[in-house]
Amino acid sequence: MFEFILYAETLTGKLIETEELVRGSVSVGTYWYYIRNMGLLWAFLVPFGRISQEAFNISRNFWLTDWTEAGLDKNRTVSM
Known about the structure:
- The protein is an all-alpha fold.
- It has a domain at 40-80.
- The protein is built from 3 helices and no strands.
- It has helices spanning 2-12, 28-38, 40-70.
- The N and C termini lie far apart (57 Å).
């Protein structure tokens, strides 16, 4: 690998090229381009799945908190 780096350096004269930094916001057209190319079904399923996953994680955390605190109180029961 070290030889490859030296070889690449001799071809171009440098290993790192400067990149251009662009500031601003992403236009709505760019978002629409990605949504159109991925398909409307996936454009809605992926965020819906992610939101559902987070809702499940939050509800699981509440249930685990209730379950662990129920072990401290001998008279308390936890329902599923």
